[in-house]
Design a protein that fits this description.
Order of helices and strands: HHHHHHHEEHHHHHHHHHEEHHHHH
CATH class: Mainly Alpha
Largest sheet: 2 strands, antiparallel
CATH superfamily: MFS general substrate transporter like domains
Oligomer: single chain
Distance between the termini: 27 Å
Strand order of the largest sheet: 1-2
Number of domains: 1
Helix content: over 70%
Shape: globular
Length: 488
């Protein structure tokens, strides 16, 4: 398609209620992602007691879901290119239900790990499919805000898991106490996920397939109908033609599309995406979400206070995700990442100092004296605020939109492996670091990666605000052609 034809595409218009509905349905997968990630938080000690596991075994019980996430993210991206975004989201919804039920009825670590692995498949798939689908149905003018719904639903899911855990434990007295019908409270904490998972499966029936997937799979007429339902017939036809110019009509998207046909190497953009995905984890956010209750008890808080602290942190997370929604299409993605990197690094540095200088009693319990407990709580929530307004939502937005149409699904699959693999590594190593090196050293390491993230973004990440996926696809191809010719 010529430049003149590109310029003839009608001014972007869209059916806002319909677009928001489609984005919201896809983002329910993010809610389940968040709930499933957060529910483990209040069950760690109860699981250790129920399964009689040591610190390493408990760490694996918590982190096992992340192994499933690695596999789920990879196959969701590749299978979404083969079978479509919608069928894979439906599959993820069913897996959420199976995992929630099975985790609650588990009698031992092996059985529990199997069901958590199934849940991990669902979480990994949802983490990739929601931003993929939303970015492909959203108009470029509001794509950032709509894609941020994914992160908003993740943090709402986390908050609801924290709140559910807090209320259930409050009803019974503790997570390992019996609650209803002879089952311990921690079982009910997992079963609480079944209802939203069932709702997700039901509402998915009413949404269409991604128009960009339909074009890539030679179903242009269906793509035109989908686009016409969220815009108008004239704009839909022009957009389908525009999408066609960025995919290979003789070849459906596949995994090896991440290798440039011009250079024979993996697209540089994929490496940048991997860097963004890994750095989001290396700044330590999930240590707070997975081990929040354990962390604050180590800092001297009672179990009930630690669970309440998680609820407060969840509220901060939600509020500042709304801040990101307001800012992302105004100031852009890159400025938010830069500010967030420095903010997170500074707050982690404060936590490293407070925990590193804390006293230890005769039972080896950490004691934050005077007002240091309050200062630590404030610093932790300020850290969450910076994350929620930047790296939390922006990473998923950028991964959903930065890759060309031809290999978006494949690139997301690879970035998903990197993101969940680093998540697993951090979640597994944190209990060991906590036992042998202490909280102060641990947070110092995460603070260092905050500064690394700043320089990575400043040097390598390009702004995507307000640009169409097709324009970015063409620009990337032209850049790789130039590099192949010049060797630069």
């Amino acid at each position: 398609m010529s430049d003149q034809q590109h310029e003839s595409i009608p001014t972007e218009s869209y059916n806002l209620p319909k677009v928001i509905f489609l984005a919201f349905v896809a983002a329910i997968g993010g809610f389940l992602f968040g709930f499933d990630s957060g529910v483990i938080n209040g069950t760690v000690d109860a699981l250790q007691s129920a399964f009689n596991s040591d610190a390493t075994g408990t760490g694996f019980n918590v982190a096992s879901v992340l192994l499933g996430c690695v596999v789920g993210a990879f196959f969701a991206g590749t299978l979404a290119d083969r079978f479509g975004r919608k069928p894979m989201m439906l599959t993820a919804g069913v897996l959420f239900i199976i995992s929630a039920w099975g985790s609650g009825i588990s009698q031992g670590s092996l059985e529990f790990v199997i069901y958590r692995l199934i849940g991990g498949l669902a979480v990994g798939a949802a983490s990739i499919l929601a931003p993929l689908y939303i970015s492909e149905i959203a108009p470029s003018k509001i794509r950032g805000r709509l894609a941020t719904l994914q992160q908003l639903m993740i943090v709402i899911g986390l908050f609801m898991a924290f709140m559910s855990n807090y209320l259930l434990a409050g009803s019974s007295g503790s997570a390992d106490a019996e609650l209803w019908w002879g089952f311990q409270t921690w079982s009910w904490m997992f079963w609480a996920e079944i209802l939203p998972a069932a709702i997700f499966v039901l509402v998915l029936i009413f949404i269409p397939e991604s128009p960009r997937y339909l074009v890539a799979s030679n179903q242009s007429e269906k793509a035109t109908k989908v686009l016409a339902s969220i815009s108008n017939a004239t704009q839909a036809a022009a957009k389908v033609a525009d999408i066609k110019s960025t995919v290979r009509e003789d070849s459906r998207p596949k995994l090896n599309d991440i290798i440039s046909k011009y250079t024979g190497k993996i697209h540089p953009l994929v490496w940048i995406g991997i860097g963004i995905a890994v750095l989001q984890q290396l700044t330590g956010i999930n240590v707070i979400f997975y081990y929040g209750a354990t962390l604050w008890q180590a800092a001297g808080f009672a179990e009930s206070d630690a669970l309440l602290t998680n609820v407060i942190s969840g509220s901060v997370n939600i509020f500042f995700t709304f801040v990101a929604i307001v800012l992302i299409d105004k100031v852009g993605r890159k400025p938010l990442l830069l500010v967030g990197s420095i903010g997170q690094a500074v707050m982690l540095g404060v936590l490293a100092y407070l925990f590193g200088t804390a006293t230890v009693d005769s039972a080896n319990n950490l004691i934050l004296e005077g007002n240091n407990g309050t200062y630590a709580l404030l610093a932790a929530n300020a850290y969450i605020a910076f994350f929620a307004a930047s790296w939390g939502p922006v990473m998923w937005v950028m991964l959903g939109e930065m890759f060309p149409n031809q290999y978006r699904g494949a690139a997301l699959a690879v970035c998903g492996i990197a993101q969940w693999g680093s998540n697993f590594a951090i979640t597994m190593t944190f209990p060991i670091m906590l036992n042998y090196l202490g909280l102060g050293f641990s947070y110092g390491v995460y603070a260092l990666f905050g500064f690394v993230a700043y320089f990575f973004v400043k040097s390598l990440v390009k702004e995507t605000k307000g640009r169409s996926l097709e324009d970015m696809s063409r620009e990337q191809e032209e850049e790789e052609k130039r590099q192949a010719v010049t060797g630069g």
